[in-house]
Amino acid sequence: MKKITLLMTTWNAFDHVKFTINSLFANTNNFSLIIFDNGSNSDVVNFLKKLETEKDNVRVIYSPENVGVWKSRFEASQLVDTDLMGIIDSDIAFQKNWLETLSEYFQDSEVGQVGPTKLFSHLIHPYTNLPMHLAWREVEKSNPNLNDQIKKYLNDNSFRNFIQDLWNVNGYFNEEISIPPHCISGCCMLTRTNLYKSPKVVDVEYAKSKYGFEDMDYSWKLKELGYKVLISNKVYVHHFEHSSVDENQLNINAPDQQYNTLYFYQKWEETIVDWIISEKEMGKSLQEIQESFIINILYKTIPKNIPTKLLAALKDE
């Protein structure tokens, strides 16, 4: 496997940052890591400075303030010189050899982006018979230690055994995802560097708000350009979800965070409405459509500004 560059953003949440770094180095080969720190506290900064001196494959960019997801990743990406690059959040537990496994998909020249299996609400947790995310919340509430949480959630199995048990319960899915309504989460994904740096793919408009929809826009644009966008059924990584957002008490649904939501909808309105109409024609109920991630998140973040065309498409005929 050729060397791959990974980009990570950090913003406080020291315990998760330390856990993620340890998990990454224990389970990943032949990579370089560029970390963009968004004005973290001294615990995180001191840890990163020590890491940078101890590891010759780590480089850290220190920002005095939180500039947001898009700006952080864009600035860090300018330093990437490998053919493939990955994006990872700072609250992830990794499967052994996850990066090598994901990179193999790019032997197909039509593949533009690959992500791992993670906490998907539509999948059943193999050991509790609960939806994955609900099973995780139960574990999270009862175990403050991050290592203990992972062990309990995996039922003391390896990641590789866990994902096999997951598919034994749920059945395998088609790795090429449907766009719309799906996307690859920016918490962990691998892509071609030339695509991520291309102004035809990456939209600078998302820099106007700190969070939201830049990852969905990236997947949708790749699909529009004819690339395959895949979720691997061979790799599971565990995303603790929103550790920095929670610790820093950021309200991602606040008015100043809604810009990206509205911009994304306006940019892709025709695609979204056409998808709704197609789903209705195939017999999907309005409830099923409204429960899809894209529609659900639009209703949550801009409840008072739902566009007329969207409302019309979601009405019974």
From TrEMBL:
Annotated GO MF terms: glycosyltransferase activity
All residue ranges annotated as the Glycosyltransferase 2-like domain in the record: 6-116
Protein name as catalogued: Glycosyltransferase family 2 protein
Family annotation (SUPFAM superfamilies): Nucleotide-diphospho-sugar transferases
InterPro entries named among the record's database cross-references: Glyco_trans_2-like, Nucleotide-diphossugar_trans
Organism placement in taxonomy: Bacteria, Candidatus Dojkabacteria
Family designation: Belongs to the glycosyltransferase 2 family.
PANTHER family noted in UniProt: GALACTOFURANOSYLTRANSFERASE GLFT2, RHAMNOSYLTRANSFERASE WBBL
Keywords: Glycosyltransferase, Transferase
Cross-referenced Gene3D superfamilies: Spore Coat Polysaccharide Biosynthesis Protein SpsA, Chain A
